């Protein structure tokens, strides 16, 4: 791959109209066991509720703007401004935004001035209403907390399996998922699988032409999706959300500390690895990879 000084990859010089812009929408501080706990890490250890700030990792929180000839697709939203009203770390504001002290103990975040998704879209001359789709990879806070910042998008896509899973009763779900983040949005499309790609042969073909597929990668949550963007020549970019937290996740098959089903998580991670090492893969990115940098990939 060849990148320009502004971090843009320009493929072979052929203008296909496909690009992925990487936004960093703040950052999150977590226990090292949450992203890289491995197969024998349980939810208590993975959550890191007893891990002090000095032992935690700061990871980027990313969102991705996908542009194709069929339309614009935003993948995930990052943090809402009310997490950091003044652009700095704010414990009290975060607890209110996240909906509980317990979730704050797992995920501490901050989003600097100019870094919320609506602010960064505006810097690119775009409004939320210019988005044809917002795809939510899964409903964890650092992916869905900012949904109301893009409430004017034409459609917000959430897998029905993901919403059903988030609504299941139980102590963990009550802490992990906060319906207030998406309450009142009347443009949410709870979609069912219409395609057979991926580790479970469950996917959704967004435009009906195979260019943007939402591929179910369960394990971390039930309905989590990776987004695979494929240009006419078969080259693609894979955005695998929290199917793994970094390149090392699929390279070394390191599962995360928080998961619903470790065996499903490993199967999803194996698929991510297979996709990532293909010669047709231009880029493969997790949401929280420490190596992620804001850039544009044109392919």
Automatic annotation (TrEMBL):
Keywords attached to this entry: Hydrolase, Metal-binding, Zinc
GO MF terms, alphabetically ordered: hydrolase activity; metal ion binding
InterPro entries named in the record: MBL_superfamily_lactonases, Metallo-B-lactamas, RibonucZ/Hydroxyglut_hydro
Domain Metallo-beta-lactamase: 60-285
Alphabetized SUPFAM superfamilies for the sequence: Metallo-hydrolase/oxidoreductase
Domain of life, source organism: Bacteria
Essential cofactor(s): Zn(2+)
Membership in a protein family: Belongs to the metallo-beta-lactamase superfamily.
Protein name per the record: MBL fold hydrolase
Species this chain originates from: Bifidobacterium lemurum
Lineage: Bacteria, Bacillati, Actinomycetota, Actinomycetes, Bifidobacteriales
């Amino acid at each position: 791959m060849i990148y320009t000084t502004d971090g843009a990859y320009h493929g072979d010089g052929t203008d296909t109209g496909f690009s992925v812009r990487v936004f960093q929408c703040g950052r999150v501080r977590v226990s090292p066991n949450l992203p890289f706990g491995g197969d024998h890490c349980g939810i208590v250890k993975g959550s890191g509720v007893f891990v002090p700030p000095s032992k935690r990792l700061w990871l980027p929180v990313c969102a991705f703007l996908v542009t194709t000839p069929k339309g614009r697709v935003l993948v995930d939203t990052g943090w809402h401004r009310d997490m950091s009203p003044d652009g700095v770390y704010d414990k009290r504001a975060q607890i209110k935004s996240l909906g509980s002290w317990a979730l704050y103990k797992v995920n501490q975040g901050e989003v600097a001035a100019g870094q919320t998704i609506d602010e960064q879209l505006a810097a690119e001359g775009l409004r939320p209403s210019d988005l044809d789709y917002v795809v939510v990879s899964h409903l964890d806070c650092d992916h869905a907390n900012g949904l109301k910042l893009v409430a004017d998008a034409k459609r917000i896509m959430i897998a029905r399996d993901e919403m059903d899973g988030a609504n299941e009763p139980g102590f963990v779900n009550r802490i992990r998922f906060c319906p207030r983040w998406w309450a009142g949005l009347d443009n949410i499309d709870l979609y069912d699988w219409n395609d057979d790609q991926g580790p479970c042969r469950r996917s959704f073909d967004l435009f009906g032409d195979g260019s943007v597929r939402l591929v179910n990668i369960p394990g971390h949550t039930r309905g989590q999706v990776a987004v695979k963007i494929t240009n006419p020549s078969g080259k693609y970019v894979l955005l695998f959300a929290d199917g793994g937290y970094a390149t090392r996740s699929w390279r070394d098959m390191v599962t995360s500390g928080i998961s619903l089903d470790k065996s499903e998580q490993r199967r999803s991670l194996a698929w991510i690895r297979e996709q990532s090492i293909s010669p047709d893969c231009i880029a493969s990115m997790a949401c929280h990879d420490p190596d992620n940098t804001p850039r544009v990939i044109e392919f």
